[in-house]
Amino acid sequence: MNQADSFQPPITVSNTMPHPPAPTTALGRMLRSTYLAALTWAFTLFNSLRVVSYLPTMWAIQASGDSSQHSLWTWGTWLGANVTMTAWLYEQNGQRLDRAVIVNFGNATMCAVTVVLIAAHRGWPF
User: Which of 14, 62, 67, 74 has its Cβ near the most Cβ atoms within 10 Å?
Assistant: First the structure.
């Protein structure tokens, strides 16, 4: 038996969490819609602010030339978490970009820049 004969299709994982029941009244639908819109904008606002919040750390590392107070392991973990979250959101959203994907990509980018700054100030070649 060769490899082609033993091919197994990939296992797919579906969302097994049930969706809450849809509101049945016009008021319920309006409140749900308003809540979801507010939640979306709050997510976008706070996570966009999070992207900007990386700048003081980057500035401190660059200005002082000392990255010894910053853990490469921690920043690398945050980078991995943001990259995989970006990819997961993109795939779960039918391979479409939306606010969540873009904001997580921004977070991943800022983590990557911080990792590079930390490593560069420790004399690690790239």
Answer: 67
